Amino acid sequence: DTGVSQDPRHKITKRGQNVTFRCDPISEHNRLYWYRQTLGQGPEFLTYFQNEAQLEKSRLLSDRFSAERPKGSFSTLEIQRTEQGDSAMYLCASSLAGPETPDTQYFGPGTRLTVL
Amino acid sequence: DQQVKQNSPSLSVQEGRISILNCDYTNSMFDYFLWYKKYPAEGPTFLISISSIKDKNEDGRFTVFLNKSAKHLSLHIVPSQPGDSAVYFCAATWGLDNFGNEKLTFGTGTRLTIIP
Question: Which stretches of chain A score pLDDT less than 70?
């Protein structure tokens, strides 16, 4: 299967610890997005990359959050000094930006983070 | 500020009948709309999209209608099947006249249950 993959699928951590998630997009896709989804809500945009450049960050992305896409392929999302409010599903999506209609984003299965 | 609203948290429909899911938006800049379907423990799966230059788009059993003056769109599923039971998210973005799209703004979702 060549869809978007995310690792780990589940992460339980204690408050104050650092966590890192990985996303592998569909191989030819040049755009990669991170979203966060909490219970009863739709996914909320966090940040996105075109190739290795991070082009936009949401105000939801506090200083404790950092995302990278060093070689324009996989991406990592790190949360430092986790708080209980960080508990959520973290979703990654990728797309192939082109000159026609807005590109469709394809989502991975997500990483569920629980902060105790 | 909920720019994309799905006012029905849940909907139950008899198998074989039509399912109609509704979505309202407030941001006049939105010009591209998508529907995603989500099963438990999976990421959202793209279903169908529509741009603001159209008022209807069909793909098999799925049809999306857009009423720009009312800032309203709906997803029709005919006939409904048990496998359609899932949470459906409406999403919106803009950038029809630009190079691809960026972040998606999602509604809170509608849980559709198809009754056999």
Answer: 1, 99-101
